[in-house]
Design goal:
The protein is an alpha/beta fold and 219 residues long. The chain is built from 8 helices and 8 strands; from the N terminus they run βααβαβαβαβαββααβ. Strands 1, 2, 3, 4, 5, 6, 7 and 8 form an 8-stranded mixed β-sheet that branches. Strand 2, helix 3 and strand 3 form a beta-alpha-beta unit.
């Protein structure tokens, strides 16, 4: 059964790297925008440690990619911070401070993040970003919409790519929505340094089809 997303007017998206908002959350963001939400994106790192696009000025290039991708999705604003890519795990206090400042500036009705269990992809930065957002949301009495992958999709990707996706069961992802990926795909293509043909990022979208899976953590 399909469940509706929360009818929030203002949403703060918290992610670790440029492209997380597109490849990961893009279809959900697109739905929220279509439903009339004002969406702000807080990205905690510039993604400068990516092995894709190595040898270029990745911090600068990925900042530009984030801006253009967010515009494709219909986001109102983006804020890009300079925490070290790959180094968020031991910076909980600093991350929570910055999420808190973003909450104070944007005054959202709720937050949108990756589910914290392994940060969906198994990347420690994703988990650290989500846990910081959840901590601040609990402190401020805000609900959080958490995006995840069902076991079948995570297991298939792990087997095909040797990846580390963390799948969740139906009881853990009770919100299942139908999405139009048009804007998400356009946004993903803006991440030129990361949008490598045949990569696991594209394959994940194929496996998900027109569905996304989430849960709502209430304050």
């Amino acid at each position: 059964m399909e469940h509706q997303l929360p009818t929030w007017r203002h949403v703060l998206v918290v992610v670790a790297h440029p492209d997380d908002e597109s490849f990961g959350l893009g279809a959900v963001i697109s739905r929220l925008v279509d439903d009339g939400a004002h969406v702000d994106v807080l990205c905690l790192t510039a993604g400068e440690a990516s092995t894709l696009g190595a040898g270029q000025d990745l911090a600068h290039l990925r900042a530009l990619e984030l801006e253009t991708a967010a515009q494709q999705l219909g986001c109102a604003t983006t804020s890009l911070l300079a925490h070290p890519d790959g180094g968020l795990v031991d910076r909980a206090a600093d991350l929570e401070r910055d999420v808190r400042l973003a909450v104070e500036a944007t005054r959202p009705d709720g937050l949108l993040v990756f589910a914290p269990e392994g940060g969906v992809t198994g990347h420690p930065d994703h988990e650290a970003a989500s846990r910081a957002a959840l901590a601040v949301a609990a402190e401020r009495g805000l609900p959080v919409l958490e995006w995840g992958l069902p076991h079948a999709v995570a297991d298939a990707l792990n087997e095909e790519f040797g990846a580390s996706f963390v799948g969740l069961g139906p009881d853990e992802l009770p919100i299942v929505i139908t999405v139009d990926r048009t804007r998400q795909l356009a946004a993903a293509h803006e991440h030129v340094t990361q949008a490598v043909p045949g990569s696991v990022l594209w394959r994940r979208l194929e496996k998900l089809g027109d569905k996304e899976y989430l849960r709502l953590t209430r304050a």
